[in-house]
Amino acid sequence: YEADGARISNIRLLDQQGRRVNHLVPNETYNFVYDVHFDANVSHVGFAMYIKTVHGVELAGQTSHPAGEGASFEAGDFVTVSFPFDCHLLSGAYVANCGVYVNGKGEFIQLHRILDALMFRVSTSNPNFRRMGLVDLQSHDEPCVIQHHKLKHTA
What is the DSSP letter of 119? Predict the structure, then answer.
């Protein structure tokens, strides 16, 4: 997508210490961060990010504002956008999209959007990690509960 009133740059993933990373560990917290330079006066501006598999399966995303709401900026303004997220993805390779848009008064206009802006990997070295698929559904680190019920036979 061509830039039209805003330009995204410096897309990055940061760990909790503010270091750039491209290898994530399940259940850790990270920030998806990008900068936006505005070339026009705009209002009802929102920001977004989306994570997909490398095969294009959309997994999750976030927006900065509800539909119809947003911030206002003037030409020359510069902002840094940061979306915190807990990594509930399982081992694999993923890509992330990001965008800045106008969403107000019944209109939706992309100011700039970058598809597959960033590629990252999720993996763990824990041999006891017992999850499978794309997303971690396990509550905390609690193991599976098995309740054995013996049937009483009546004669």
Answer: E
Integer Cα distance of 67 and 109 in angstroms: 12
132 by DSSP, 3-state: which? coil
- pLDDT (tens digit, 0 to 9) for every residue of the chain, 155 residues total? 788 899 999 999 999 999 999 999 988 999 999 999 999 999 999 999 999 999 999 999 999 998 888 999 999 999 999 999 999 888 889 999 999 999 877 788 999 999 999 999 998 766 555 555 556 555 556 665 656 677 777 76
- The residue type of 94 is Y
Residues sharing a CB contact under 8 Å with residue 146, sequence separation 6 or more, in sequence order: none
In Å, how far are 36, 56, 139 from 136, measured between CA atoms?
32, 19, 9
Exposure string for 84-97, b = 16+ CB within 10 A, e = fewer: ebebbbbeeebbbb
